[in-house]
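Bug report

Summary: structure tokens for 4-hydroxymandelate oxidase differ between web form and batch submission.
Environment: batch mode, default settings.
Steps: 1) Submit the sequence below via batch. 2) Compare with the web form result.

Sequence submitted:
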Amino acid sequence: MADQIPPTAVSLIDYQQLANEKLDRPSLAYLEGGAADQHSSEANIKAWASATIWPRVMTQARGATTQTSLLGLKLDSPLMIAPTAYHRLFHEQGELATATAASALNTPYIVSTQASTPLEEIAAQAAGSPLWFQLYIQHDREFTADLVLRAKRAGFQALVLTVDAPVNGIRNHEQRAGFQLPPGISSVNLHGMRPAPSMSHALDPRLLSSLPNWQDIAWLKELSGLPVIIKGILHPQDALLAMEHGADAIIVSNHGGRTLDLLPPTKTALPLVAQAIDKQIPILVDGGIRRGTDVLQAIALGADAVLLGRPILHGLSVAGATGVAHVLRLLQHELEVAMLLTGCRSLTEASSVINTPN
């Protein structure tokens, strides 16, 4: 029987509740858990909700559109699918279901290094829709280079280098639930890599010597010939450094609150980064986006596009590819309604919704 959308799933919050009811405790802890006491992950959502949006009435709406451009892509919407690991934890078809939904809606999909499906199969399933490859630089640099070239051969159009998680965060929620990957699910695209040396502590010199650095941006660009987007920027000075070292775009992200607790919510960091970058390269943002009004705020604060992480996995858990597509459609519809009710005919007019009126 094909996956079906539950009649009660009318918002992203509904999908989260339905997924939470369906998943086993360890998988749920992996999906929803944040670092330490989870202040950062919770603050992401609360920050978008603590806002005032100014409406406009009787405006000229003819020709209104959510279309945008990003690194040469002409997109119908600023929505993108963020990189998240192990989709087969949440549905038997895993990343193939996510790619099916992305293809159906022509939504860019950023595939994780830790995908549970071979990247070539994901690319084939995406059927020509925009695909980017998220990269963790591995301790084995030769393997990392081969992985990058493998992604390029498969048709991925950009690299997303995640820089904010050189080590795993302290995820007490997962530890308490005893989370472990079940048999048959793994980071299949990392198979064949030589094992990492056993580390005695987080400041082990062998780990420190293998961490990514700013010069890796140029290395990846020369190696692949692809645009390189840096994911995990919060501090404006890091945004400037990324741009100075050749980043083609940046993603304002605190890793969904999963690496370090007490980080600022992405909504707080976004305008500071946008001011520093001053429209010289595109800015994307993720973290806690659950409503169309959140998307509109993000665009108003300087983002060119937004990434959805956990909501995609909620939709996948509940109804596979159908659920992922429905999550995207719900948020798209909410964005369109928010634009209409605030008098925005295009995303370039979004700043008016948060500025205090004269």
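Above is the batch result. After comparison, the two runs are identical; trailing whitespace caused the diff. DSSP finds 13 helices and ten strands in the chain. The beta strands are 68-70, 73-75, 79-81, 109-111, 131-135, 159-162, 228-233, 249-252, 283-285, 305-308.
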